[in-house]
Amino acid sequence: MIKEAIILAGGLGTRLRSVVSDIPKCMAPVAGEPFLKYVIASLLDQGVEHIIFSVGYLHEQIDSYLKEHYPDLDYSLTIEDNPLGTGGAIQLACQQVRGENVFVLNGDTLFLADLPSLAAFHLEQKAVCSLSLKPMEDFDRYGSVELSSKGIVLSFKEKQHLEKGLINGGVYALSVAPLLALGLPSKYSFEKDFLEIQARNAVVYGLAQDRYFIDIGIPEDYQRAQTELSRPLGIFDKSWTLFLDRDGVINHEKHLDYIHHWDEFEFYDGVKQAIKIFARVFGRIVVVTNQKGIGKGITKLEDLQLIHSNMVNAIAEVGGRIDKVYFCPDLNEDSLNRKPNPGMGLQAKVDFPEIDFSRALMVGNTISDMAFGRNLGVKTIFLPTTRPEVGTNNPLIDAVYPSLIAFALDL
Asked: How far lies 370's CA from each of 21, 117, 177, 245, 326, in Å?
């Protein structure tokens, strides 16, 4: 694992002058905190131990912030007295790197790349530089990157409208010695004078990672960051899993009874639209539902299977997705698979090994659902659709929304 990172924090922020001024771009306030705080957190959360800040414009503000808020952080500063370009800044910062490899990030971009995976890929390929690439749809603000089937960067395309493609997310794994051995000038563009040229030598690789990405370089995205980074539950992307209860969340419950047949199943308003939104955001969407009617013999298994098949198909028809439905017919409250016990969630992990419970949510309408979430170690969202009397201050509940579509529209 690579344990060091360079943050390029010397940007002038000229395109943000209409909304912020007289501060380095990475220090622009977002949801009440300097944007740099989110970038630092993304590194520390993934095991980075030493951070080199490449600073220039108004660097005293960054230095003061770090001394006050990160007194125990192992960090170094490299200061550009005159702008050196991205390449010169990285080259100068590399002099402070203690190991053979280092991550490089932009201080005005938050791309929550999977750094351990990027490091493993970089070392396996013996690359000089490996890029974390963000898949995007319907974009024209960024150039795109073309990859071979083996992950070699073939070319960097100029900005043009594309329906789908990969962009350079501004997160790199870099081998220090090969860079310094090139004898590049003290001032140059890392993108133009290093990446594009070295790509011709098949030593630059790319790894697609569909993680959260935002670049605050323009006022519109800076304002968007204010909303997205202020969410109480954090930010979500394809590395996250969404667990959903069924009755009272997706469809209307049948009071003191069970849904026995498809013609009794009624979606809540907006649910199909909500799950369409979820399909764009979450990597996995799983339904977990207790179904005692099967255990009691009053609901037929084939009828339940038809309900679930029709439910999944109806959601797919509008562009949504349910990856799998798990149900527990057990009457025994001690059954591992019966919520609030975590068995159905554990089975989902077996079927989908990429599920990470530290990156998962449970949405339900009962305290049992909330306890299921806690037993899995996931965050919880309560919908008071059928039990409005449940207090919102319950320690099992992380957030409350009136409906599934209300949560989806807040993403």
From this structure: 45, 31, 51, 10, 17
